[in-house]
Structures are given as structure tokens and as C-alpha cells.
Amino acid sequence: MPMAFNLFGEASHTDNDEARSRLGALFGVEAAGDSDIVFEWSPGRRQPAYTRDRTAFDVALRIGDPAGPRTVVGMETKYHEHSLKEKIPSGRNPQAALRYQEQTDFLVAIAEESGVFKPGWQDRVLTTDLRQIWRYHLLALSMRRHPQLWTAQTRYALLYPERNASFRTATRAYADLLADTTGSFQAVTIERIIAAAFNDVSPTRDQFRSRYLW
Hints:
alpha/beta; 7 helices; globular
């Protein structure tokens, strides 16, 4: 999260519409009119209208009239992490295992309803390292189910440094599972974000590169 704050801090300033417009263009959405950037944000933690869990985006670019509907680019940032499998409750805790399976079934229903996945996707996601990416993607897809609040351009973007080979491989594998043409999932390198998030004269831009990008 400190990296996320440093990367998007200047763009989150109330008067920095220019940076948010550049970011919107990078993600393929129009950032005209009202916009803001917020951190550690969810449309509704634990709410069954969304993913019914505590999943939240590290950063969210919200575009449009706050009265709705708004377009949201929900972002998760990675740095040195590897793409790893989530822990699954063991049979020694049957209640936790049951809750895990019930939540999985709930999320699968959202995925199937969205129509963005190719046949056979479950075997390549549910018990693999791609499950974490999938959960964040579903948060964006669940938002699209409420057009009075969120537009059909709402999407999820996973950000990582181009030298992070683990997430480069994982995001390519995940994208290969999608039959989606609406841009609901995007993988973008931190290097590309820098050009949009900072002005050319920003001293923070060079400081960020020096600190995080070797």
C-alpha cells in the first residue's frame, strides 16, 4: 500500500483532473467531468449485492457524477510478491471448509452470470494461483450488475512492475481464460502508470522510479 499511495498520491489531489484524465485514457475509459481517486475502497464489504466478502481495491479511479452511475477502475497493486495459491481450509475445520465452499459457489454464480469466461475456466482458476486475481475481477463484475450505480465500463486492473515475472505470467494466463471484449480485466505495468499519474515536471516521478524500479 505505501507504493500505491506514492504512485497515485498526486493524481488523487482534488485539483489534479489532468492526471485522472490521463489515467482514464490509459485504461480506456473517458474521465470527463467529476472524478476522484480513493484508496482501499470497496462498493460494499460483505454485502451480498457484490462479492459478500471483504475484498477491496487498493486504489479506485471513480469517474462521473457521484449521484451515479459512475465508472470505476478498481486497481490492485503488486510489487515484489509472487502469484501464489490461496490457503484452503482443511477438513480439520469443517465449518470453515463449508463457509469456503459456500462462498466459492456464490462467486462462481457471479462469474457465470457475467458471461466473460471461456468454457472450462473453473479448473484453471478455483484451486490455482489465479483465484486471487479472479476474486478482484469479480468485484468489478458484480458492480456492473447495478447499472443505476456503476456503468458497464467499470473494470479491474492489476498493476505490477514489468520485471515481476510471476505476475506477468499469471496475468497472461488469466487473460487467456476470458472471452470478454468489454475490457473488464486489464494488466498494466507500473512503468506505464507512471507516465499518466505524474506530470512531466513532478519531482515525485523521478523519486518514485529511483525507489521502486531499480
